[in-house]
Amino acid sequence: MKKLFTLIGTVLLSVGVNAQTTLKVESFRMGIGEQKTITLDLDNSDLADAAAFCCDIVLPEGVEVMKDIEGAYMFSVSDKDSRSTSSELFIASALQNDGAVRVVCFPKDAKAFASTSGAVLNIPLVASKELTKGTEVVTITNQEITNTTGLNTIKPGASVADLIAFLRGDVNDDNNINSSDVVRDYEYMGGQTEGVAKDDADVNGDDAVNSSDIVRIYEIMSGN
């Protein structure tokens, strides 16, 4: 019986069934026509010496990873949570035939990440003005997470997160930006918050709802 359990455990590891080690992004809001940087997080609780990873990032139509003037994806190593102990991390990325963006990250000095959870990669996104309001899905798939020796690789299943697309300045949620949004924001400031999310009333994104949000609505209405 003990040999049977050992065999089962070996098989599960080989096919990548491991709930405690995965790459993921958190659900987030994104303004239509705007840019936003999110992080790719790694939970490697069952692979403490994780040092490298690769995955495919599947984005909804109308959202893309930003590129530089030479057409290269602008991924960067995240310094959040002081995860990297390596002197240099190498990032490679390429568009796949199915539209996903594959990214590979590994340390040139073979050092492991400093902890077993936290952000490992910055993902700069841009949303088209044609993106529609609503909830879309971001999927992180084809994951492979490898330790410092390269002898232990875990292949988790796909992880998903919600992308909530909204029209900045559309406080009353009628798909238009006009004086009625100014009125609704004033009402929100006066305590009439029912039916309006703070994220919509906080037009300039500074985590407060005040007169500067009114100014921002007028700027959006004027095309700025």
Overall mean pLDDT: 86
Individual helix count: 4
CATH architecture of the largest domain: Sandwich
Secondary-structure element string? HEEEEEEEEEEEEHHH
Structural class: alpha+beta
Main beta sheet strand tally, sense and closure: 7 strands, mixed
Classify the helix fraction into a percent range: 10-25%
* N- and C-termini, Cα separation: 70 Å
* Number of structurally distinct domains: 2
Assembly status: single chain
CATH class annotation of the largest domain? Mainly Beta
How would you describe the shape?
elongated
- What is the beta-strand fraction? 35-45%
Over all CA atoms, what is the radius of gyration? Answer: 21 Å
* Poorly predicted runs of 5 or more residues: 1-19
Named CATH topology of the largest domain: Immunoglobulin-like
- Using DSSP, what is the number of strands? 12
Structure description:
The chain has 224 residues and is α+β, with helices and mostly antiparallel strands. The chain folds into two domains: 17-166, Immunoglobulin-like (Sandwich); 179-221, no CATH class. It is 18% helix and 36% strand. It is built from four helices and twelve strands, in the order αββββββββββββααα. The protein has helices at 2-15, 179-189, 198-201, 211-221, and strands at residues 21-24, 28-31, 35-44, 50-58, 63-65, 76-77, 89-95, 101-107, 117-127, 134-147, 153-154, 159-166. Strands 2, 4, 7, 8, 10, 11 and 12 form a seven-stranded mixed sheet that branches. β7 (89-95) and β8 form a beta hairpin. α2 runs antiparallel to α4. The termini are far apart.
